[in-house]
């Protein structure tokens, strides 16, 4: 599901993004390109006033990995030596609930520190 934001721009949903790169480690390079993955995109984070509760209600989520696999790749060094290197491959991303940090709470904490 895509969301419309200010300026009518379309925001991409939380999803896995894939790319291919050679991995480097201590001057050694992967024998082949490796598929690297990242999580990115929009989740349904919001803050709104609740008439019933007479306060702000917040829901914060972040786009992060939900399923990963450990993969191995062969690394080749300039001297011809080889070794296996493990890395994490993201299979699936999703929106997961997280703590909302309010500007008011941050402001109170800062002003309390100044008084001490």
Automatic annotation (TrEMBL):
Disulfide bond entries: 28-77, 39-93, 43-95
Keyword presence, Iron: no
GO CC aspect terms: extracellular matrix; extracellular space
A Pfam entry, by short name: Cys_knot
Keywords: Disulfide bond, Secreted
Major site of localization recorded for this protein: secreted
Protein's name according to its UniProt entry: CTCK domain-containing protein
Organism field: Hucho hucho
